[in-house]
Amino acid sequence: NFHNGGGDSNGSIVVENCLVFGQPNNTAAGTAALHIATWGNNACVVNCTVADNHISGLELETQNTASAFVYNSVAYSNGEAILIDSITGAASHIVAGNLIGVAPDGMGASGNGTGIRIDNAQGNVLENNLIGNNTVAGIIINGPSAHANVVRGNIIGETPNNAQAAGNMGPGVLIENGSYNNRIGALPGDYNGANVINFNGTQGVFVSNGGAGNLLLANTLGFNTGLAIDLGAAGPTPNQNPQVSSPSQPNELQNFPVISNAFRTQATEWVQGSVTTFANQTVQIDDDFEG
């Protein structure tokens, strides 16, 4: 195992080109193959292969630190492949370009428990990762201090170029326990920010008991066993008419749009329907026609 106690140092930690294997008997709470616990430090883990760990593959537990996990391969961890966790509020970390639960060739299965988990941390960016074959979920954002996190440009549940299914057994993305104001997907003009979330064992995106203000924008969701987007209890939540304010419910149980007609001409796409919402509120509805 690699472990850094950090202390009050203000230096930087770089771990690169490493191989960490064979930690299946690490059963102590918080045990990870690579565990970096720092206060005031920048940590960068690059180009490492981590496999066969009992708890987590890579764990970052820091306070007010901008760190990065990039271009790593993490497989066969019983817990999380990558865990960002801090009771003091780890913030502004980047997790990018990693193979999580998918073999280095991008095709074979080498699943973990959960792909990436954020516990009570804010302002982190998860982008351009390939996440599949995990037994719990692709990504979990958890806790009332988990907010302003961005999940963009990831492939969750399939291999590159739609080659084959690599679904996670649970949801592709799970937001829970009061997490709020996170973004899953792309803002206008962010042409590479949409996530592909396919072939997962339950929902595509599940906001189970998260807070309000979680933006779910411009993603491609398909072939998931459950709903593409699910708010509240698992399964369809009936629309309310009129819409009732539910501030304690995930995304206030925003009504879903009812599509009555959709068709396409050579020059124009037409979608007709309606959505009932709160008075004087604007609702953004995105459509994506392919082919």
**Mean pLDDT across all residues, rounded?**
83
What fraction of residues sit in β-strands?
35-45%
Number of E-type strands: 27
The N- to C-terminal Cα distance equals 49 Å
| Radius of gyration using CA atoms only | 20 Å
The largest sheet, given as strand count, sense and whether it forms a barrel, is: 9 strands, parallel
What is the gist of this entry?
This protein is an all-beta fold and 291 residues long. It is built from no helices and 27 strands.
Please describe what this structure looks like:
The protein is built from no helices and 27 strands. With 291 residues, it is mostly beta strands. The strands form 4 sheets. The chain has a 9-stranded parallel β-sheet, with no helix packed on it. β26 and β27 form a beta hairpin.
Give descriptors for this structure.
291 residues, mainly beta, nine-stranded parallel sheet, 37% strand
